[in-house]
Fold this sequence. Notes:
This protein is an all-alpha fold. The chain has helices at residues 16-27, 34-40, 45-51, 55-59, 61-76, 81-96, 100-111, 114-138, 145-169, 174-187, 213-224. The chain has a single domain (16-187), classed as Tetracycline Repressor, domain 2. Helix 6 packs parallel to helix 9. The two termini are 45 Å apart.
Amino acid sequence: MSARTAPxxxxxxxxxxxxxxxxxxxxxxxxxxxxxxxxxxxxxxSTFFRxxxxxxxxxxxxxxxxxxxxxxxxxxxxxxxxxTLARGTxxxxxxxxxxxxxxxxxxxxxxSTPLLRERELVITHRYERMFQRYLARVAAxxxxxxxxxxxxxxxxAVHNAALRRWMKFDDSHAFGELERELTxxxxxxxxWFGGERAESRVVVASFSADAAPDEVLRAIAAQLG
Length: 225
């Protein structure tokens, strides 16, 4: 799926993770044991632990995969910082929404389960730290420390806002808009991260004290033009 293409809810056999998330939604996270969850997805308890680790881990398996993919992309990228951040963030969106039904069920499960919301905050910080380390590595000399911190946090916040739009309103344009939003956001932090500083000009105007205001404005406009 390209970055500009909205996710489609294609019909495919449910994955073990999708089945697990649905089971947790229907039976309640706190009331579900690991054994009952393993039975529900047709695994032995030992196989479930080897593949997912815990019932909490199965909820966030897509995030773990997205984080792993993102780290590889940031480590290997030879593109500009702006292109790298945009492509990495859009790939995270693709991973998290590749199964739209499960993505929305997971969102509902998180909203109703405080323990999972706390884990979600931890994962959000992992994305921020990953972006921050990359940005600190590629920042131009003289970039303040808060530059990489601020841009990393902003990228994650803008991504999460687009994801919420898609979740809440089924907005098919959310991720196309995200690409534009990220480009604009990252540009605000140039030239620290590969952007170009706009040329600045100083115009000194000297005019007679009795000159008409319109005449002064025309003279300044002529110099700026």
